[in-house]
Amino acid sequence: MALHLWQTLKEAIHAYTGLSPVVFFTALALAFAIYQVVSGWFASPFDDARRHQRARSSAAEEEPPIPQPVQVGEITEEELKQYDGSDPQKPLLMAIKHQIYDVTQSRMFYGPGGPYALFAGKDASRALAKMSFEEKDLTWDISGLGPFELDALQDWEYKFKSKYATVGTVKVTGLEAQTASVSEPAETGEKDAHVTKQESAVVDKNDDAPTTEPDVKSE
């Protein structure tokens, strides 16, 4: 039956086109390929938009939903290292000036393989201020930084506060607290020094002023 149909088809192709079945089907395949190429040149922009929309929808379905930020409270630097993104079940955290932020939503930047992955799980205040990727700068210690670097760190802090949730603080020991107080911007130190000078001047004037004892009437 199948052989009879094929024979009939060959005779019909030859009768209507004058071509052999091999030439006919080769020409048909070539015409279809040319049609696909030409139609791609004149594709509607709406078709591209629909394709991109479908691609985004598929990507969104594949990506797991971002969990809600969880407060971790006050933790040590060693505990903060557990949230560097190596464990996908834990949030991705990093700190600036001892304030911890949940940056899980930006895992492509701060997660493993991201351009800022080395900042994750750390208080990298100094590195952010200097825009440094050196291991020695991955610390909270910002002592000795210049005004431009401190301004840059403040910009990072504003950005993080506006974009990410604050979920805790890094525990500061006694020595760290002293170092952090010394690391305040130079402008604050200058203001304090100015106030101290004014207070000293007032004390000096009071010391130089003559002291008069009240008259005591003898009875």
What is the SS-derived class?
alpha+beta
**N- to C-terminal distance:** 151 Å
Q: Note the run of SSEs as H and E.
A: HHHEHEEHHHEHH
Strand order within the widest beta sheet: 1-4-3-2
Question: Stretches where pLDDT falls below 50 for ≥5 residues?
Answer: 180-219
Shape type: rod-shaped
* Helix content class: 40-55%
Describe this structure in words.
By secondary structure, the chain is α+β, with helices and mostly antiparallel strands. Helices cover 54% and strands 8% of the residues. The N and C termini lie far apart (151 Å).
Question: Can I get a quick summary?
Answer:
This protein has helices at 2-17, 21-41, 45-62, 77-80, 107-110, 125-130, 147-163, 174-182, 186-208, and strands at residues 73-75, 93-96, 99-102, 165-170.
Q: How are the elements arranged and paired?
A:
Blueprint (H helix, E strand, L loop, with lengths): L1 H16 L3 H21 L3 H18 L10 E3 L1 H4 L12 E4 L2 E4 L4 H4 L14 H6 L16 H17 L1 E6 L3 H9 L3 H23 L11
Parallel strand pairs: 1-4
Antiparallel strand pairs: 2-3, 3-4
